[in-house]
């Protein structure tokens, strides 16, 4: 007791009032943003639901009683503090959607039983602490969407890359070798490497015409460049910061 946030206590009555029936007939428990720190055991009374939304809470653990929810097809646990999954997660054979984004999952926190979710179509593991992903995830042959962004991955296993039905795989912001060297920006401005100064009389007619043409183009650009406005514009300064407050008399427009 007294260690960590206690969270909000969810009663069976609160849980029942959070039940929604979707247009497809599925029943969803909507318990997002409820301040829940511990998986409510009272949910066992509603273990026949098809969908559970426990996102944006303070959950650190998913208990092994998750195996009681055998009808579960959709489970959203994003934006919690979960660092590992129980092996019992693999018993949810009807699960097609699993969102674990924005947690504290490590590679060790992914049980091998995760690969038993053979009907899984969407798996989001983005924004976690993964340094690698199991090659066995390649056994999830029904996967269509896979989120791996914002981790510490240095390699994506071939078995995962070659998933037969994968359509979207987000691996952005990982230290992957293929993204290590970003393409250099194209320099649209021609840089002058050498500059030669001569007098007009030393130029031939052809060179003189070329120089005059380029000089005319330069004058046109100068004419198009707007001059400094009479009054500076501070549209981005909605309120002065702490440094500016002391010096605001120096920059305030009178």
TrEMBL record:
<dbReference type="Pfam" id="PF13855">
    <property type="entry name" value="LRR_8"/>
</dbReference>
<dbReference type="InterPro" id="IPR001611">
    <property type="entry name" value="Leu-rich_rpt"/>
</dbReference>
<dbReference type="InterPro" id="IPR032675">
    <property type="entry name" value="LRR_dom_sf"/>
</dbReference>
<dbReference type="GO" id="GO:0005737">
    <property type="term" value="C:cytoplasm"/>
</dbReference>
<protein>
    <submittedName>
        <fullName>LRC18 protein</fullName>
    </submittedName>
</protein>
<keyword id="KW-0433">Leucine-rich repeat</keyword>
<dbReference type="InterPro" id="IPR050216">
    <property type="entry name" value="LRR_domain-containing"/>
</dbReference>
<dbReference type="InterPro" id="IPR003591">
    <property type="entry name" value="Leu-rich_rpt_typical-subtyp"/>
</dbReference>
<keyword id="KW-0677">Repeat</keyword>
């Amino acid at each position: 007791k007294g260690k960590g946030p206690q969270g909000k206590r969810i009663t069976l009555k609160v849980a029942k009032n959070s039940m929604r029936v979707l247009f497809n007939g599925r029943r969803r428990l909507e318990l997002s943003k409820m301040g829940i720190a511990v998986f409510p055991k009272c949910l066992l009374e509603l273990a026949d639901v098809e969908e559970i939304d426990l996102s944006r809470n303070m959950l650190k653990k998913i208990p092994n009683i998750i195996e009681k929810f055998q009808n579960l097809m959709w489970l959203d646990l994003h934006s919690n503090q979960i660092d590992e999954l129980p092996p019992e997660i693999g018993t949810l054979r009807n699960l097609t959607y699993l969102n674990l984004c924005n947690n504290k999952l490590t590679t060790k926190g992914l049980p091998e039983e995760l690969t038993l979710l053979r009907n899984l179509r969407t798996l989001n593991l983005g924004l976690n602490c993964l340094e690698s992903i199991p090659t066995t995830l390649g056994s999830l042959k029904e996967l269509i969407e896979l989120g791996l962004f914002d981790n510490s991955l240095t390699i994506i296993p071939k078995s995962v890359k070659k998933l037969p039905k994968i359509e979207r795989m987000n691996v952005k912001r990982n230290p992957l070798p293929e993204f290590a060297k970003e393409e250099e920006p194209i320099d649209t401005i021609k840089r002058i490497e050498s500059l030669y100064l001569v007098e007009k009389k030393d130029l031939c007619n052809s060179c003189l015409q070329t120089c005059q043409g380029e000089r005319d183009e330069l004058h046109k650009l100068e004419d198009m460049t707007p001059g400094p406005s009479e009054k500076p514009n501070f549209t981005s300064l909605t309120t002065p910061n702490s440094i500016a407050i002391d010096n605001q008399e120096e920059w305030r427009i009178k």
